[in-house]
Design goal:
Number of domains: 2
CATH architecture of the largest domain: 3-Layer(aba) Sandwich
Number of helices: 13
Radius of gyration: 21 Å
Order of helices and strands: HEEHEEHEHEHEHEHEHEHEHEHHHEEEEE
Shape: globular
Structural class: alpha/beta
CATH topology of the largest domain: Rossmann fold
CATH class of the largest domain: Alpha Beta
Helix content: 25-40%
CATH superfamily of the largest domain: Response regulator
Length: 431
């Protein structure tokens, strides 16, 4: 995707975003930046962070403020790198859930001279951020996007790879490893699977990748058709699904579209025995919005308080991070907590491992060659499927009525990652 040149003055005027000095425990201001001071000193390493804090994908960024505070606290005393005591600043930018805006704010960070850029949450963010970093030689790591959508969606070919941009998350094989065991266990009467896949980068990766895997393992994808994001009437898809024998359902829509679809499904009598959804129902706010219709919807869980992981920065455990978030904000944990935290773990580790952390080629090499045990588990960027991609292994969870909060996730299948304890039995979404 190409964009017309934007002047530095125009970029800065459109952003209104600041930086967060280490230890200042900043909060996001109304413009989407972080209050604090900035410095161009060689003793200060500046990390840019790009995420969708507003708009349709804002649920992914709900924990941003908290995580930035935690990272600032963990490295408040600075780190000796290349013979100098270095401190860190974090500069936050809001994509407003727009790929075009993601491109613009990444350019702003590059023009402002950050040393490394991290970004999170769906290809609408990760791909334009990574493209700008690759084109400008800026070390970059992103997360929460299927690797195929990030890699092939950016035009890469097998074995080709990127120089400056890296990713940790998972892909179609891991979605299959997560969903297929639940499909087998639920006892559906047919192998038909109703698939709600829109026409976007994420869903097209599922259509091509997971669809092929389903056929290979004996399942029959019933594709509802490549509709446009923002659709409000899913009658055509519903009719197709109801005319099939599908008792299984999967999808990769944007969250508002799933809310619309799922309510219409109940109204029109499409009630699959098991729903295993991707990209949606990842966060408590979505479950609360659906209310009783959330019960026993299953999804991929790549991080939770039950995961046996801890911070490489200060030893904080997954449970401590989740509990700290609840205590600090009064809100329920979200699995983006672990991912966003690990963006900074990985980025800081790459800077720490450099003789000169201002040498962007050296830092980028450290990212591509990194193997790290951290808040997101064991991340090995050398293991593939392509250089610079570290794979996570999600487990199956279902939404159930909660105790401290209205809804909570219960781990019901740990086939892909036995280290994560199971907390309950798999149950039909619609009995």
């Amino acid at each position: 995707m190409s964009h017309p040149p934007i002047s530095r003055r125009g970029l800065l005027k459109g952003a209104g975003l600041g930086a967060a000095a280490v230890g200042s425990l900043p909060l996001l201001d109304a413009c989407g930046g972080l209050k604090g001071s900035s410095s161009s000193s060689s003793d200060v390493l500046r990390i840019g962070y790009v995420s969708p804090q507003t708009g349709a994908l804002a649920g992914f960024a709900a924990a941003d403020n908290f995580i930035v505070k935690q990272i600032n606290q963990a490295v408040r005393n600075g780190v000796t790198i290349g013979g100098k005591k270095r401190k860190f600043e974090i500069v936050v930018k809001d994509t407003q859930s727009s790929p075009n805006r993601a491109t613009e704010v990444t350019r702003e960070l590059i023009n402002d001279g950050v040393d490394l850029i991290v970004g999170s949450s769906t290809p609408d963010t990760t791909n334009p951020v990574a493209d700008q970093c690759e084109a400008n030689g800026i070390p970059n790591v992103t997360t929460i996007a299927p690797w195929e959508a990030w890699y092939f969606g950016r035009g890469a070919k097998p074995g080709e790879g990127f120089t400056y941009t890296t990713l940790f998350f998972f892909g179609m094989e891991q979605f299959g490893d997560c969903f297929f065991p639940m499909w087998e266990r639920i006892g559906a009467s047919s192998k038909d699977v109703a698939c709600l896949w829109p026409n976007d980068t994420d869903a097209n990766a599922f259509r091509d990748g997971l669809g092929a895997m389903m056929k290979k393992t004996g399942y029959n994808p019933i594709d509802g058709g490549a509709y446009e994001d923002g659709s409000t009437d899913f009658t055509a898809q519903m009719t197709k699904f109801k005319n099939s024998d599908a008792e299984l359902f999967t999808c990769t829509p944007i969250p508002p579209d799933f809310q619309t679809f799922w309510k219409q499904a109940q109204q029109q009598g499409f009630r699959p025995k098991l729903a295993t959804v991707a990209k949606v129902m990842l966060f408590p706010t979505e479950a609360e919005a659906l209310g009783p219709l959330s019960k026993n919807i299953a999804t991929d869980i790549w991080w939770s308080p039950a995961h046996p992981y801890k911070s490489v920065l200060d030893g904080t455990t997954a449970k401590q991070l989740a509990d700290g978030y609840a205590a600090d904000t009064g809100k329920q944990w979200t699995q983006a907590l672990g991912s966003i935290y690990s963006l900074f773990e990985v980025g800081i580790q790459a800077l720490k491992g450099a003789d000169d952390p201002k040498d962007k080629d050296e830092v980028a090499k450290n990212l591509r060659e990194m193997s790290l045990s951290c808040m997101s588990g064991d991340l090995d960027f050398t293991a593939g499927p392509e250089q610079g991609i570290a794979i996570q292994h999600p487990v199956g969870g279902q939404w159930r009525e909660g105790k401290d909060f209205p809804w909570d996730v219960v781990i019901v299948d740990n086939t892909p990652n036995p280290d994560v304890p199971v907390g309950g039995d798999l149950q039909p979404t619609n009995a």
